[in-house]
Amino acid sequence: MSPHLSLLRNLPKYLRPSAPRSSIRPLGRALHGTSIAFAGHLPPRNAGFKKIEEQDRAFFRSILPEQAVRTSDLGPFNTDWMNKYHGKSDLVLFPRTTEQVSKILKHCNDNSIAVVPQGGNTGLVGGGVPVYDELILNMSAMNKIRHFDSASGVVVCDAGCILESLEETLGAEGFITPLDLGAKGSCHIGGNVATNAGGLRFLRYGSLHGSVMGLEVVTADGTILDNLSILHKDNTGYDLKQLFIGSEGTLGIITGVSIWTPPKPKSVKVALVGLDSFKNVQATYEKTKTHLNEILSAFEFWDKESLKLVLSHSIQGTRDPFDDQYPFYVLIETHGSNAEHDDAKLQGLLEDLMEGGEVVDGVVAQDESQSQSLWGLRESIPEACSKAGAVYKYDVSMPQSVLYQLVEDMREHMRSKGALGSKVTDVIGYGHVGDGNLHLNISAPKYTDEVQSLIEPFVYEWIQGHRGSISAEHGLGVMKGAVLPYSKSPEMIGYMRKIKEAFDPKGILNPYKYLPLTESK
Ligand code: FAD
Ligand code: MLT
Ligand code: ZN
């Protein structure tokens, strides 16, 4: 055994963390010849939308059970997870069937009532809460698994199934969901599809554009599009479901999801390593791919500032497994079918990394509880970021070679403006290295236009300059509709508008979001 491996020690047993719980600003820059119209000031309420009246509520009561029409204590439904976006809706509906969703939308479309589809409300771009008084269509009462076929691994379920519940049910059948997020205890599978969520297993099981087999969707006028296919192959016409994946509730309400699920791995290994530079994070990723190849299921990184935040707030009983602190941490996970084989591969990788000097220290989880503890450090970061009072989140993708440079440049930018340590508490970085996806988080005591204008357009110009995307996985919502031209050309945005008009000609679904605003919508 290599002498370096003595640095790799068994984790002490400690508490398994429980499952995690669950504006717009001025930019005057012209891009691609398009002026970015707003980004700090809310667009005005569209006067074309009707205010909900007693006769509308009476209609909804006539088609839904009493408890499915809620008009009081609506604070949590009007407020997003970050406490950044606040709506003023006075009506939340909880349909139980696709037919009820269809009747609700037909009434809303006929009467020009604006609607916000809402899943678990864990979204991070203000997409799932109203901007003004839009009716909230909450999907949590549609939470049944409709069918599971173990031969194909395809499950068909209601859109309101909570991801973690789905995972538990599938677990009993020997399968897992193809995606996993820190928000799994609250987010819905329908919300995941609507945002095209990426998450922690993307590297292994890929995008929802590949794993979703079919969708049942209700369009704005109440039409039910039943495309709950369970087929892996189907080349009959335009693949309409792909348009709804990532459409963030702007084209239709997803009521049912058919999704491929992988077999539950017989062997899961988790290691955490400490590194002294981001260059070594990248070198470690290269070696990890070569050593682990088909069993690699996650490769997540975070910086020491992220870990400090998690530990200082003791989120979910987290503890530092190392004696020293390192500038960077990487969590490596494998999903395989033979523990001995996977162990040998992981040990081989860690020896190589120690000998090569890419990694300074490391621990390997010895059981599921320790694996959960290591994952707890990673999954607690989003919650820790918001503890300062406010957090500005940027979820961006770019070539891996410059992934961490944005964090360093943003820190320097804040320092040069005299904001770091005062108006801004922390600038931290973490994310999904294999996907080229950085989560840049800037914490501050409160949300202010001043901090916002220090960050934007700096961050979007940086991303555009490095040929990146302004949203890798969280989507556009109310936060990024106006800045879409940083990532998409006017021609592409033009076609997106045509698609929106085809499915929702009156623009009642999730208005003021997703696309740059026009005068009327
Ligand atoms: P909501 O927040 O309720 O809604 C999100 C958007 O989808 C809104 O625009 C809403 O209108 C629309 N929508 C919801 N349900 C439907 C429906 N049935 N039909 C049509 N439109 C609908 N995201 C990632 O991609 N990767 C991560 O790793 C990740 N980790 C997270 C960790 C934490 C702690 C938190 C708080 C969030 C995380 N997110 C992550 C963001 C968020 O959880 C995901 O975007 C998730 O997919 C949203 O699901 P939801 O059910 O909460 O949707
Ligand atoms: C994550 O990877 O943890 C999520 O996308 C949430 C976040 O960025 O905070
Ligand atoms: Zn993420």
UniProtKB/TrEMBL annotation:
Q: Which GO terms describe its molecular function?
A: D-lactate dehydrogenase (cytochrome) activity; FAD binding
Q: Reaction catalysed by this chain?
A: (R)-lactate + 2 Fe(III)-[cytochrome c] = 2 Fe(II)-[cytochrome c] + pyruvate + 2 H(+)
Which superkingdom is the protein from? Eukaryota
In this chain the FAD-binding PCMH-type domain maps to: 85-264
* One GO CC annotation: mitochondrion
Q: Which InterPro entries match?
A: FAD-bd_oxidored_4_C, FAD-bd_PCMH, FAD-bd_PCMH-like_sf, FAD-bd_PCMH_sub1, FAD-bd_PCMH_sub2, FAD-linked_Oxase-like_C, FAD-oxidored/transferase_4, Oxid_FAD_bind_N
Q: Identify which cofactors the protein needs according to its UniProt entry.
A: FAD
Record's keyword terms, sorted: FAD, Flavoprotein, Oxidoreductase
User: Coiled-coil segments, which residues?
Assistant: none
The family annotation for this protein states:
Belongs to the FAD-binding oxidoreductase/transferase type 4 family.
- Name of the molecule in the record: FAD-binding PCMH-type domain-containing protein
Q: Which organism is it from?
A: Piptocephalis cylindrospora
